[in-house]
Structure of UDP-3-O-acylglucosamine N-acyltransferase:
Amino acid sequence: MKILLSALAEKLGLEYTGDDIEITGVNTLEKAGNDQISFLVNPKYADLMESTRAGCVLTSGPHADKTKRALISSNVYMDLAKIVEMFAEPQGCLTGISDMAFVHPEAVVPDSVTVYPFVFIGANATIGEGTVLFPGVYIGEKTSIGSNCLFYPNAVVMGGLSIGDNAILQPGAVIGGDGYGYAQTPMGHQKIPQIGNVAIGDNVEIGSNTAIDRAALDTTKIGNGTKIDNLVQIGHNVEVGEHCLIIGQVGIGGSTKVGNGVVLAGQVGVADNAEIGDGAMIGAQSGIAGNVEPGSKLAGSPAMPAGTFLRASSVCLPKLPDLFKRVKKLEKELAAVKLAAENGDNDA
Amino acid sequence: MKILLSALAEKLGLEYTGDDIEITGVNTLEKAGNDQISFLVNPKYADLMESTRAGCVLTSGPHADKTKRALISSNVYMDLAKIVEMFAEPQGCLTGISDMAFVHPEAVVPDSVTVYPFVFIGANATIGEGTVLFPGVYIGEKTSIGSNCLFYPNAVVMGGLSIGDNAILQPGAVIGGDGYGYAQTPMGHQKIPQIGNVAIGDNVEIGSNTAIDRAALDTTKIGNGTKIDNLVQIGHNVEVGEHCLIIGQVGIGGSTKVGNGVVLAGQVGVADNAEIGDGAMIGAQSGIAGNVEPGSKLAGSPAMPAGTFLRASSVCLPKLPDLFKRVKKLEKELAAVKLAAENGDNDA
Amino acid sequence: MKILLSALAEKLGLEYTGDDIEITGVNTLEKAGNDQISFLVNPKYADLMESTRAGCVLTSGPHADKTKRALISSNVYMDLAKIVEMFAEPQGCLTGISDMAFVHPEAVVPDSVTVYPFVFIGANATIGEGTVLFPGVYIGEKTSIGSNCLFYPNAVVMGGLSIGDNAILQPGAVIGGDGYGYAQTPMGHQKIPQIGNVAIGDNVEIGSNTAIDRAALDTTKIGNGTKIDNLVQIGHNVEVGEHCLIIGQVGIGGSTKVGNGVVLAGQVGVADNAEIGDGAMIGAQSGIAGNVEPGSKLAGSPAMPAGTFLRASSVCLPKLPDLFKRVKKLEKELAAVKLAAENGDNDA
């Protein structure tokens, strides 16, 4: 793939500075060669604009004059996504439906679908046009998969579920394993069969080895456009809204409701039956155990307003041993003052 | 599956109120239709008893009069488990031993076993009657699997292990990967081969993408009836007792001993060589680094009595910045008082 | 495998005490039989030296006289690794290249490689001599794998990556899934295609169900000799140095740099764009959000010097409710003293 800078600029509706060149790829400011385009967002790295060998730098107006050729964007990441898309080669090396796969005779699999060897598609499953199923993917019976999905190796979608269009499952993702539900009985924990399902919207991406459990009775839901990172755990009956960002190793307990546009940073834990309002942002490693107001910014375990947590934990906590000493000193001195006062002794 | 409420009640040995109807399924109070049974445990949701369309509600005596038909139980979850069991359809759509699987000629696989395509069963492995192995399951050589087990897609059981009856492995669970053991040498970390195994009891369930390591030399053990959630890490040589509940994303370090009936909530971390006594309950995200007395309720990282942690972290920690100000003010005022006293100045 | 103690000692260049016997295996002090060798490192378990039935104990000089036969080592773990290696039997039961595998005609797979059934090897992938690929392993197109690697069942290595010699992937490990990168746009989160790769050095081990993401544009790197435990998440563009130990459930955010010889204990979280200097040691469950000096020992979330954290969290935090009471009492008493002073009342 090669494209003239002028043609690239025209395609994206952007202006550029400097002369025209041929662009053959995208790379970081450190690694880009003189036929590649790079990008700058964070001003912290602005110095690299001068040392980079990149043929052109995609950046916002204020930085454009720091390099010989700039492609000027008001949303660098959005335009970067479009440029990378042009140069990206999809993963994989086969097309068609492999005869080393198992496709149940009662499954519906259009010719436009790619089915690699060792894929299993169960009875009455339906796969949408253009979807690609890599080796080791399992699609359970009666499950419905949308169009243009990409399910990478060893992703598992159990039976009776539905997934929308353009979904991406990274390798090893598991959708629809049983929820964790047991009745306490005199003979021990008795499994409550998990007869519910999972419904995943359009444009959802789910990371490597992430697990999303089927509901006990009704439906675990993931809304349109939500992006879930690797090794995330989502319990049964959870409802996650649209356009959320759920970062690596987050765990969400059963029956919790997460609004739209919520951001859960890495390793956050959310307890069962919690409710997180639209647009809330929860800092890494925080613990949420109740309801979170829309738009809140929380941190800590248990969580509190992020600013409070930062002051309490970063500033105060390390000085806590010293604070105990100061209080002890105050107690001693005050006792001395009181004693002196009692003795009418004002000279000390 | 359809059953008269009267027949259902008789089967479970329960009483019911209202007239008899035909029950065709189970659902939540919000979702149940008038031919479905629902349930109520948490009084917080008692209002739903009035708005639900459910044909009948399984509940305890005190709530029974809030709905037109109630099935009255003294252990709602236990009876719910039994009812759901009646209506549950098992996952999967094949029976028999697929000729797209690999079964080693020296493996012992009775005819009652279901072996899906792309299952691998190694030499001298033995599989118990009625066990179901979904696509992508790996059973290593010399491993012994009990009867009526369900191993979902891509679950891995390495060689030389044993698993009891009625075990459930959710998709992607890994049993018997190597433990994490290295000798520090001048040439770097030298792997200590992990030649031990894993022994899992009866009625154990293991969640999606959970990993349980084989012992270095002897045996990693999981006791009867213990239920392990998704994405849990259990290190080599760990011994977990019977009827424990180990919730999502818990990590247990090597050689740790966990007693019977222990509950480890989500994202708990337990260090190497710890001992947790019978019946201990550890709050979410806690960190355990030593021995825990039987019956303890701990929380925090490092863990302390749960009540203490709650007060210290929920109540006190957010007020810590303010406490520092109060102590500073005390110091100033006390200094002023002392100075005044030194000056014999009592008028200030 | 049987070996005379005298021959074993000679092989390792070690001295032994007591008479010569035949050794048939290795086990713990509790479990070893009288034809097995055991070992002692931790003096805490020295009492077991007297009760053990082990035929011989590998230990350092100071403990050698506590047992009838000792093999004396100045690096017990290193010599243990060598002894266990002698007795270890490799996992697996097949050799050769299975015709139930899919090997792309344009892949390079020497005859010395073992390819189990249900392995997928993509176009232009190259596999080094003696490497073993267990069932369900996926090797993407153009990926290069070194010699003598062991990839256990269902491990996934996506396309365009490189892995050095002697690498071990435990079951379900995923290398080269897409990094988590999205542009915020008016239409929601737009995926930035992840067109970079992953380069893993020699002698690296990667645990069960661990996920290492491909770079956005250039290369995610894992240095020689680094050992990564189970369920670890490593984000895109991360560079991990040589001989690091990264324990279970650690998460490392995108573009972070980890030096050589770093130890990250269990469940540590490292934010995006952090830098951790050589030889740093980070305590379990800690949170790292910025730069860490080489050789630092940190703990806590957010992290602080480990000693400070221990005092602040183990000693002070539980006493915090009491500290608030003490400060309140001080405030009251000081107010009384001031009031008395104002009243010129020194008798109280």
